[in-house]
What does this fold into?
Amino acid sequence: MEDLNFRNGDAKTDVYGSSTMLQPAPVDKIPDGPTTPEIAYQMVKDETFSQTQPRLNLATFVTTYMDDYATKLMNDAININYIDETEYPRIAVMNGKCINIIANLWNSPEKDQWKTGALAIGSSEACMLGGVAAWLRWRKKRQAEGKPFDKPNFVISSAFQVVWEKFGQLWQIEMRQVPLTLDKTTLDPEEALKMCDENTICIVPILGVTWTGLNDDVKALDAALEAYNAKTGFDIPIHVDAASGGFILPFLQPELEWDFRLKWVYSISTSGHKFGLVYPGLGWVCWKGKEYLPDEMSFSVNYLGANITQVGLNFSRPAAQILGQYYQFIRLGFQGYKEIQYNSMEITKYLHAEIAKIPQFKNYSPDVVNPLFIWYMEPEYDKKANWTLYDLQDKLAQSGWMVPAYTLPDTLENFVVMRVVARMGFNRDMADMLLGDIKNAVAALDKLEYPTTTRIAMNKNEKITPTKFNHNGRRKADKK
Ligand SMILES: *Cc1c(COP(=O)(O)O)cnc(C)c1O
It folds into this structure.
């Protein structure tokens, strides 16, 4: 058989001189035989070579930079399965310490040494766990009262992240959406309460709304809920989806009450791999106390040599992220996190102010409350422009930037917006480079004499689907 690795089996042949490099990469079938690690490495590396550089990807919320020590720690732990807690008990303890630290950042009232919370692979799993706990608590209460418990629902704004749609679908819990408008840009507590009834398992405000960067007003919701629950006799709680805000507000706005200080907030979830500053995948969920985590959700597993309590959807999972999170806590401390989040926020505010000066654009909100914001085309200009923000997205990609354009959900679906997320690893100089590229691109697009294909489609009111999924994870075809 022909040796595909080396011509005539010559080990001195360079990777790019090998015959394997003349073959297409496998698509359907596992190759017949092995190749050298050098060749395999290069083939996989090359296949992803032309992608956006992670740090120029301003679409993602997820960490794209950690220092060398963090990276080394995580690489050192790459072969550790978190679930083997008996074999690696120090990591289970470290996990508990991370949960304690996060619960305390959110002003947990819990007095026990180990706070009630769970590790997750991201906010998605963490949201699911918070949602399932709310559902089981509600169900148990309904059962005890001899009432039907087959039609649960939850209430959220229409700017939900896709995980909540999954939660509704997978557990068959009706999702009730409070539509956003240009005037009401965040969840309206009164509108949310109008959608509640005896079957409502929880209301889900979002801190750092994926679509807009804004924060739902949890304090106002809590106050409205207090009156509502007193009047109706229900006890509808709040789960806060703090995927981004959970690691921003404790450092930059510690006085803002959105967390366990509020009466009806029973659980909170966040992404350790967003502003928790750890590489993916890491999420956290905490409950206000043990009594809010239903027994049915914690499983004791004893075949690994000890009785271990687990809360989670997955079994095996990487442990490296826990080391990364604990390292960041020690390395940065409260002050270090504050400095990094402050810088991300200042750079966002700078970009926001500069975008406001570009006559073709209009910011969605005058406020910047998280290190991200969105803008759209100035409406008068939009009527006569020959291009759209989708064209700008393409033009910026030519300089390596990933700056997403997408339509807002639901009632605002005619608004094409563009979003920038500033994270650790994005500095003022890069912001200036981006602004320069945006201004050059706009100047070039303004010179177009004929409308672009996306502009033609938009003028005809056709849906534009440059990619199958938008940057908020929702399938575009879902909305009709
Ligand atoms: C990112 C995000 C999620 C999902 O988080 P992952 O960590 O990517 O699983 C959920 N909710 C909100 C508001 C988000 O921004």
Q: What stands out?
A: The first strand starts at residue 117 and ends at 120. The chain has a mean pLDDT of 92. The chain is about 35% helix and 10% strand.
